[in-house]
């Protein structure tokens, strides 16, 4: 790949956003996009290395000069470059590149469950790309910083958010710009526990709207760009318009063949004319759609290690039925 030269801008880009309520922890946004440094003046003065800075690695890739990388950074660099060479082709658009990276990270790492024990002590580096790419173990910040690293290397604008989930636990995810619009991504939550071989990749939190993300994530978005488009949401890119419920099973089979765990469908049939959406992540009774229970039963008879459920999801102005195929050991 031809080396590129970038300008390193030394600026304070960690934004500790204000306006949080007492029940909401402060939100921190780390912006490395296009090799901008991630150290704020406050962190520099205190020597706080809480937020992993991947810019030396992305800058080395874009400049073609690895001389300033330490041993660990060089390991990360080599692993990431190898992945890009295998995953990315010249004819890909930014959405396709982003999707390939998302699926790669989910496939190469599993959640470091040791962090969930009483002491909360897991493997070292699980909060950064070394743990994710080299050790194959990560916590939420390990997933988000690895995603950030790849986006920077591919020159796709991206920010990393440190805030909380809906239960108040510390959490981290990303916001990425594709085709001029911004979308939220949570790679960690697309790699659920337990992890096991041959499980289809989840895309439940890939390129979703602020409204969708807000149902399970808590952060102050005052200084963040709005999500004003669904053009490059995963649902928009994969949804299928059907004329018969009987088409759904073949779509489910095709999804499994492609290592995907969901199918999104719309239809002009009366059963699909939903007047309102269910709350996100609330299951929708398949018996409300004539013939859908038989489709699910037929699928599960063939795939005894799967169960199936569905939800109504709002995607822009459309209400889409999303069917999830959940594999268990």
UniProtKB/TrEMBL annotation:
Residues annotated as signal peptide: 1-25
Transglutaminase-like domain residues: 132-189
This protein's GO CC annotations: cytoplasm
InterPro entries given in the database record: CAP/Cytokinesis_protein, Papain-like_cys_pep_sf, Transglutaminase-like
Domain of life the protein comes from: Bacteria
UniProt keywords, alphabetically: Signal
Protein name: Transglutaminase
Source organism of this protein record: Hominimerdicola aceti
Organism taxonomic ancestry: Bacteria, Bacillati, Bacillota, Clostridia, Eubacteriales
């Amino acid at each position: 790949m031809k080396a590129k030269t970038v300008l390193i801008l030394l600026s304070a880009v960690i934004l500790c956003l204000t306006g949080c309520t007492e029940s909401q922890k402060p939100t921190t946004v780390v912006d490395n996009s296009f090799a901008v440094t991630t150290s704020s003046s406050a962190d520099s003065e205190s020597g706080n290395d809480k937020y992993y800075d991947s810019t030396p690695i992305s800058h080395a890739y874009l400049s073609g000069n690895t001389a300033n990388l330490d041993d660990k950074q060089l390991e990360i660099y080599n692993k990431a470059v190898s992945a890009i060479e295998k995953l990315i082709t010249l004819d890909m658009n930014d959405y396709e590149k982003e999707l390939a990276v998302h699926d790669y990270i989910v496939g190469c790492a599993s959640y470091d469950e040791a962090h969930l024990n009483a002491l909360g002590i897991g493997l070292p580096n699980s909060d950064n790309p070394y743990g994710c790419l080299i050790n194959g173990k990560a916590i939420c910040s390990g997933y988000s910083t690895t995603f950030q690293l790849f986006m920077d290397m591919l020159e796709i604008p991206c920010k990393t958010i440190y805030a909380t989930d809906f239960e108040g636990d510390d959490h981290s995810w990303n916001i990425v710009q594709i085709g001029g619009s911004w979308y939220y991504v949570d790679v960690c939550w697309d790699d659920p526990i337990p992890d096991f071989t041959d499980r289809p990749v989840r895309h439940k939190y890939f390129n979703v709207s602020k409204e969708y993300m807000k149902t399970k994530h808590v952060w102050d978005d005052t200084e963040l760009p709005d999500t004003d488009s669904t053009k490059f949401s995963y649902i928009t890119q994969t949804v299928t318009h059907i004329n018969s419920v009987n088409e759904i099973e073949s779509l489910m089979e095709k999804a499994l063949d492609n290592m995907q765990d969901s199918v999104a469908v719309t239809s002009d049939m009366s059963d699909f004319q939903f007047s309102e959406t269910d709350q996100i992540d609330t299951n929708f009774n398949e018996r409300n759609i004539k013939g859908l229970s038989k489709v699910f039963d037929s699928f599960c008879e063939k795939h005894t290690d799967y169960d199936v459920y569905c939800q109504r999801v709002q995607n822009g102005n459309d209400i889409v039925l999303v069917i999830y195929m959940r594999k268990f050991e």
